[in-house]
């Protein structure tokens, strides 16, 4: 598009064009790109100095004894609650003086009551929480000052503080009434859902970082799989007819794309699962019984663009990470057109997403490494808590004022634990 | 997130809503305890709907419920029976599940299947284009930064096995993902056979002839090949070719990783060559192994750089010719094992700028000025290492020689072996074994007289015998074969 008339203008445009091309080509050789979400460029913030956390000393029946009874709690995807406790105990944000603390943490492991097959039973968790909060409110004055508004709890189970694995039941129960004012750090996130409170912080599920590091392959291995997914499409044990599990989305993926050579999808459990993810461009992350899954963490760590099929989902650290620029969101009703959607994404957009995923701070933010490293999920949680400071003055209650209803909830919850 | 089936089924049983009991799974699970009129009514409706569904091929009952009950959420249903009907249906759930206005509702949803769930070829093309582009980006980010051209130097001459060797080299070079310049130096002058290979390769080639004929002993052949390589280096100097010079001998086998690895060389590099000194005679090899078994472990058949634990070059590993001391091939067509020279040229690569005339090229001090060599004033004695002043500065490639990237092999045919020029047969071949199954009625007129007699004898005997035909023909073949092998030996 060169202007016709004056030679000055044409040379100027030629210079501009040259600059533009050199700038764009310079960008092409860049491996990663900075990530800044709606809260700004906060992924690499250091929370030390921005907040102080006081850790309550609860009897070991709430934490250590549960872990001793079943050490599997350390390796399943809900292990974030245990590692958060360990991290806070030795973190510089911890303060031993509760009067200067901004946030209060109670080390309870509500998801550590496992069945023989390793699934957490949430039936006693509400009672455990109640008993712990009763203890806190009677032994320390800080709960009653704000009725828990400056306290935070880690509840990584399926539907957060609704404490049930079935969505309908969870919705019926709602968030535990005693936790209505506290900040919840949970993995579940779905917009306009009872179990997601406005001020909650969504975190990624726990995925073992060493296991993933052990399966890294060299980055110059060409990505030759277009779409990759391994997992169930039908849950024959619990939903034999189909249509209930994953709101029918996973079954739709299978029925529409089982014959499509671009889609490497099956229910296998290959030993090369992690390596295969690193050889794929897109990794499907559809909802299951709950919208979140460790697949998102794995996709981010392995540089595979996550294709998120879960309506209204709220992804981890949504204010710090601009997920729309990193992943591809597909509505559940659009699943039959998934191949059209994915192939119609412009090449530049795909390359940009890969650059964003290659950013090491992105990968760090999804992991819970032992010991903690700067920029990891622990620090993102603290950053999120720091961003909520300072507490609004209305949070502090006058003496004797009570807001929470201690007798609300199903009768079974009121029994002592 | 996994549910226990026990909890699930108990949950289902606890659901008491009427139309939920129409759900076949729960219906099959148990009978309704008290047949009240409403339940009988629903039972009748359900049976009617089932019948209609059988006829129509989709879940008709849900249509009825759609008209009877209305909730605020819509759903799409498609059938798996191949009939593409998109119906607007509602889920079977209570609508008062959430107080907030959510589009997402818990419960049974339809499994959406589009009418033609097969890949669209245009989209497949586009996906492959995306894959290619992503791989190109990966290569540019994580692969070799600025790939240099590969200058392959091949000394060759016309003989029976040349076609075998040059085809291998040609295919290897055609697969190299970088620019290739193939310099072929031919002993005995340029020939049509070599030219055909060079032409087929579709690479940028330089084909020159060398005046001397290739001698018959391995030692002399090695010496002449060195001279031919120097000639090629002269060409690199004259044409000022820019790239990495690799010595691609025509009988060697090269891996693709070799060409990726040599991109890392700065001036003069060495790599490990696997030496395949095998004559093809199994007895000889076992006798070699026996003499070696007196305590000493068999040494590796590798020629290349050797490093200490910190990765520094401390010496060279050469092929142990000791076990073969008594039985090595002298003449090119001997049946014994062919020994490599102490340092084969193919294990070294150099930057072509070392050969350029200008002193502006900042040659490192540890490389000799090769202009003397190239001008013909010197003779190269011990192989390529004599081109460097300080051999300890030579760069090691392939993680210090631990990766063997190419294999050295010398195998040639007998001196008197005959092969058709260009492997194109001008006149039809003679029959050595006539075809016994199919009688060829017309062929007898075309064949020369001698073979005609044989042919006339053969069919007559075969037609007479029924079953023993097979054995007779076998006998014929049996008598024929020793003849041919004898003549070859």
How does this model look, in words?
The complex is a heterodimer of chains A (417) and B (489). Helices cover 32% and strands 10% of the residues of chain A. With 417 residues, chain A is an alpha/beta fold. Chain A has a five-stranded parallel beta sheet. In chain A, β3, α6 and β4 (183-186) form a beta-alpha-beta unit. The longest helix of chain A has 22 residues, at 7-28. With 489 residues, chain B is an alpha/beta fold. Helix content of chain B is 36%, strand content 13%. Chain B has helices spanning 5-14, 24-29, 37-56, 61-68, 121-142, 162-175, 192-200, 218-239, 256-261, 282-292, 371-374, 398-401, 443-446, 449-464, 468-488, and strands at residues 75-77, 87-89, 150-156, 180-187, 204-210, 244-247, 253-254, 268-270, 272-276, 302-307, 313-317, 348-351, 395-396, 404-409. In chain B, the strands form three sheets. Chain B has a seven-stranded mixed beta sheet, with helices on both faces. In chain B, α6 (162-175) packs parallel to α7. Chain B is elongated and about 115 Å long. Chain B: Residues 452-465 have a biased composition (Basic and acidic residues). Chain B: Pfam families: Glyco_transf_43. Chain B: The chain crosses the membrane at residues 40-58, 65-87. Chain B: Its main location: Golgi.
């Amino acid at each position: 598009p060169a202007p016709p008339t004056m030679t000055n203008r044409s040379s100027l445009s030629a210079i501009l064009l040259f600059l533009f091309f050199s700038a764009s080509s310079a960008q092409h050789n860049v491996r990663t790109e900075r990530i800044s979400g709606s809260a700004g460029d906060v992924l690499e913030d250091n929370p030390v100095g921005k907040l102080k956390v006081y850790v309550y000393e609860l009897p070991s029946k709430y934490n250590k004894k549960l872990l001793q009874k079943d050490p599997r709690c350390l390796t399943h995807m809900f292990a974030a609650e245990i590692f958060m406790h360990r991290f806070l105990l030795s973190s510089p944000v911890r303060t031993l003086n509760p009067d200067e603390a901004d946030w209060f943490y109670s080390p309870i492991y509500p998801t550590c009551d496992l069945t023989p097959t390793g699934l957490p039973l949430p039936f006693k968790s509400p009672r455990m929480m109640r008993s712990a909060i009763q203890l806190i409110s009677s032994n320390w004055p800080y709960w009653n000052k704000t009725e828990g508004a400056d306290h935070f709890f880690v509840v990584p189970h399926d539907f957060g503080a609704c404490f049930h694995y079935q969505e309908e039941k969870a919705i019926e129960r709602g968030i535990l009434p005693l936790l209505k004012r506290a900040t919840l750090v949970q993995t579940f996130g779905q917009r306009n859902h009872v179990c997601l409170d406005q001020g909650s912080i969504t975190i990624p599920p726990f995925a073992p970082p060493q296991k993933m590091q052990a399966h890294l392959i060299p980055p110059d291995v060409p990505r030759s799989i277009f779409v990759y997914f391994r997992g169930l499409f039908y849950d024959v044990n619990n939903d034999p007819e189909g249509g209930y599990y994953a709101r029918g989305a996973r079954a739709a993926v299978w029925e529409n794309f089982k014959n499509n050579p671009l889609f490497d999808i099956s229910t296998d459990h290959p030993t090369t699962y992690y390596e295969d993810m690193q050889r794929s461009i897109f990794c499907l992350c559809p909802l299951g019984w709950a919208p979140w899954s460790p697949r998102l963490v794995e996709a981010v760590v392995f540089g595979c663009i996550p294709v998120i099929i879960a309506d209204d989902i709220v992804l981890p650290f949504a204010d710090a990470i601009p997920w729309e620029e990193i992943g591809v969101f597909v509505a559940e009703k659009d699943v039959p057109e998934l191949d059209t959607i994915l192939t119609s994404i412009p090449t530049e957009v795909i390359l940009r997403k890969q650059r964003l995923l290659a950013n090491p701070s992105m990968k760090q933010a999804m992991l819970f490494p032992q010991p903690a490293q700067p920029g990891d999920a622990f620090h993102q949680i603290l950053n999120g808590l720091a961003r909520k400071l300072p507490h609004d003055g209305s949070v502090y209650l006058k003496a004797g004022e009570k807001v929470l209803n201690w007798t609300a909830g199903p009768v079974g919850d009121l029994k002592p634990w | 997130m996994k549910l226990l089936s026990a909890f699930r089924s108990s949950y289902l049983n606890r659901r008491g809503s009427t139309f939920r009991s129409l759900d076949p799974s729960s219906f099959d699970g148990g009978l309704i305890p008290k047949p009240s009129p409403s339940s009988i009514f629903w039972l009748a409706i359900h049976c009617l709907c089932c019948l209609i569904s059988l006829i129509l091929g989709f879940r008709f009952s849900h249509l009825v419920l759609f008209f009877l009950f209305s909730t605020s959420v819509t759903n799409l249903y498609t059938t798996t029976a191949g009939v593409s009907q998109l119906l607007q249906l509602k889920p079977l759930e209570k609508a008062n599940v959430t107080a907030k206005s959510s589009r997402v509702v818990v419960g049974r949803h339809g499994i959406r299947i589009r009418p033609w769930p097969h890949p669209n070829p245009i989209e497949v093309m586009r996906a492959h284009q995306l894959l290619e582009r992503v791989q190109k980006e990966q290569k540019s980010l994580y692969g070799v930064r600025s790939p240099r051209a590969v200058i392959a130097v091949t000394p060759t001459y016309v003989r029976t096995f040349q076609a075998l060797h040059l085809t291998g080299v040609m295919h290897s070079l055609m697969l190299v993902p970088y620019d290739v310049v193939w310099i072929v130096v031919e002993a005995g002058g340029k020939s049509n056979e070599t030219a055909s290979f060079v032409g087929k390769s579709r690479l940028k080639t330089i084909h020159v002839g060398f005046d001397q004929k290739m001698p018959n002993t391995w030692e002399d052949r090695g010496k002449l090949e060195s001279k031919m390589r120097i000639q090629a280096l002269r060409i690199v100097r004259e044409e000022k070719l820019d790239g990495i010079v690799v010595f691609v001998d025509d009988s060697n086998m090269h891996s693709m990783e070799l060409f990726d690895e040599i991109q890392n060389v700065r001036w003069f590099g060495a790599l490990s060559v696997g030496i395949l000194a095998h004559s093809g005679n199994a007895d000889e090899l076992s006798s070699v192994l026996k003499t070696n078994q007196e305590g000493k472990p068999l040494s590796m058949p590798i020629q290349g750089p050797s490093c200490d634990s910190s990765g520094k070059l401390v010496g060279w590993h050469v092929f142990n010719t000791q076990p073969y001391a008594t039985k090595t091939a002298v003449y090119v067509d001997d049946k014994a094992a062919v020994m490599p020279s102490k340092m084969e040229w193919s294990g070294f690569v150099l930057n072509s700028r070392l050969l350029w005339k200008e002193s502006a090229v900042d040659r490192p001090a540890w490389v000799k000025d090769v202009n003397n060599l190239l001008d013909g004033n010197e003779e190269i004695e011990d192989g390529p290492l004599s081109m460097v002043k300080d051999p300890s500065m030579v760069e090691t490639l392939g993680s210090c020689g631990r990766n063997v990237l190419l294999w050295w092999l010398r195998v040639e045919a007998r001196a008197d072996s005959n092969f058709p020029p260009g492997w194109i047969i001008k006149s039809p071949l003679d029959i050595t074994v006539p075809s016994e199954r199919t009688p060829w009625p017309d062929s007898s007129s075309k064949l020369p007289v001698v073979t005609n007699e044989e042919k006339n004898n053969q069919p007559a005997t075969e037609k007479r015998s029924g079953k023993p035909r097979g054995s007779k023909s076998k006998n014929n073949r049996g008598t024929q074969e020793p003849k041919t092998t004898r003549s070859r030996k």
